[in-house]
Structures are given as structure tokens and as C-alpha cells.
Fold:
Amino acid sequence: MNHLFQYTIRLADNASILGHRLGELCGHGPILEQDIAMTNVALDLVGQARSFYQYAAEVEGANHTEDDLAYLRDNQDFRNLLLLEQPNGHFGDTIARQFLYDAYSFAFYQGLRKSKDATLAAIAEKAIKEVTYHLRWSSEWVVRLGDGTAESHAKIQAGLNSLWRYTGEMFEMDETDNQMLAQGIGVDLVLVKTAWLAKVNEVFAEATLTLPSDKTWMQKGSKKGIHTEHLGYILAEMQHLQRTYPGCEW
Amino acid sequence: MTQEKIHSILTSVTDPEVPVLTILDLGIVREIKQENAAIEISITPTYSGCPAMGTIADDICKAFRAEGIENISVKMVLSPAWTTDWLSEEGKKKLSAYGIAPPLDHDADKAALWKGAKLIPCPQCQSTNTKMISMFGSTACKSLHQCNECYETFDYFKCLK
Structure:
């Protein structure tokens, strides 16, 4: 197995799938400013995804382009975190998903910017500036909703509780993670978890939210391509044009 | 071709989304390589997903071809990552005159995280009695603000370090 390709494609799929999810909200945001915010974040994520897909294509060495990797792979080939394919739900659900991921990717890219792989380090260095801003936005919304009205508090707490089951796999090290870490290319997910949990605790405290139980059963599978039912629907829409008109450009 | 000539051609290429800024003002031109008749210009994106990058690369090629240089190529580089520190002083003045508040320095920006909002002077009346309306604006590089004195809404070119 080409571990560097696996490692890179996971990062590409993460940014791509969440970028697509946020893109679905274009024209559907609760208010204009937040509609613009979510599509701006989507734009950054799609940009990061392009950088990772371009590099994955180069590392794979199979004459694929970034578009082939995004639009012509199937459900079981995708390696994005299960958290990121979950539906947008209401605004509180969208914010809960965004905050859990922003806090994760902020900690992850802090590690990846020190990677011995110059390309991954460069993409991480670029991405972390954008993620810092996303994290500030989603953190402020978690506080606003959590420490807002009884209804907003109940809704975001319920959203966080229901998404919590997908946070376990974010820190699971498999063969690819271990190989990449040993080569000084990858990130130690134990360290990422410590930083992530500290940020989550800090923001939850300010937001008067309760950390979901550490006995929550954790759903896993994305690193093996086993997804929730939602990914197929995303791909059906995202890949429709390229599947119907292969090679279509504009 | 002289460095002066290359610079003068690059000065004719502007940011399609903020047309008062040349790409040199913006600080996205990272390297100019000249080998025999071939010229290679390296540029870096302001934001990963900046949709203007393709247009800018095309515009650079067009500008050189208009001067009879056919052997021109544009390379994208990611590292070191762009920062608003690379925006020229001249560029900041142009932004302000255009109605976009230029990025403030580092210290002012750090205070904004979780603490009081930074004081961004209104580009119309210069008052610092302004408020943020939205962290995100019409393009990835801007946020939206309003002046409490003259009530004008304005864009702020976000500080990126």
C-alpha cells in the first residue's frame, strides 16, 4: 500500500466533503451574513482539497488528475471522517459539526506544518491560517448558541451529543498513520487529541455546555472506507456532472 | 529583458476582485526567473480557494504576450504562505482610497480573539467608532463592517499572518 497516497487522500476527502456540505447551504443560510460565512469557509476548504488532491495524484503516479480523484472514485474509496458527511441539520447541528472539525484540523495542521514532506507542510502552513479564522467563527457561534436562550442551548447540546459518536475515529492511529508518523511525515494523533480536547473544554465551559459522556459508543470505519448512509447521497450530487458527461470542462 | 521592463509589465496586471491593486501591490509575485528567452513568474494564492488565481495567471501571460514575449509561464507556489504583511504601503493607501479598510498590524489583530474587537477606522470618515457586521464578506480576503458615525458599511481587508 502507498501510505503517503492514503494519508494525503484522507486529508483531501476531509476538506472536499465538508466543503461540499457547506456549499449545500449556499442561498439557504439562516441569515445573509452566515450564509456568506459558510460559503466562504466552503471555498477555503475546497481550495485546500484541491492542493491535497493535486499532490495525491502526483504521489499515486497513475496519471489521474485532481478531478479524477474527486469525481470518479466511489463511496468505498472515500476516506473522509464520518463526522464530515453528516447532514447539515439545523444551524446548531451545522455549527456543532464545524466546531468539532475546526478544533481538530487546527491541532492537526499545527503538527503537519512540521512534516518532513515539504508539500504537505506547505499546504498545512497555508491551511492553518484559514482554519484559525474558521475556528474563531465556529467557537463564537458555539458560545452564542450554548449561552443563548434555553432553546438554542438545548438544540446545540443535542447536536453535539449526537455527533460525539463520530469523534472517536478522528484520533485512531492505523497502519498508515503509524508509518507516516515513524517517517516524520505524519502527525501523532494522541497529541492532536490532547489539544483538541483542551479547546473543546475551553469553549464548552464558556458556552455553558456539557461534554458528552466519555462512555459514548464510537462509530468508526472511514479509514477503511466504511461510511454512514449519507456519503452516497453527497457523491450522487457532487459527481453527477462528471459521471454523466465524462471529461466535461468549462 | 530588463527587470524594470518585467516590473512594468507586472504592474499592468491587477487583482480582478480588487482592481485598484496590482499583483505587485498585493505581494503575490514571489519570484521572477529569466533563462535565455524564457520568463517564469511564481505567484502564491492569498487564500487556498481564491478563485482569482486562474484569471491572474492568464492575465500575466496575456500581458507578456502583448509585449511580444511568447515564452512566458506562471508557477503556483504555496510556501511561504502569503501574509497581509506583503501588501505594499502603496497598496494599503490605494485600498483605503477605494473604500476598503486596509489590514491593521499584528498587535491590533491579536486582541480581537475572544476579547474586544479591534478598532478599524472607517475609510470614508476615518472614525474609529465602527463595528463588525460579519466576519466574512464579499471575497475570502474581506470582512464586513459599519461606521457608527457616518453609518457607511465598508469592507475590511482581513489581517492574515
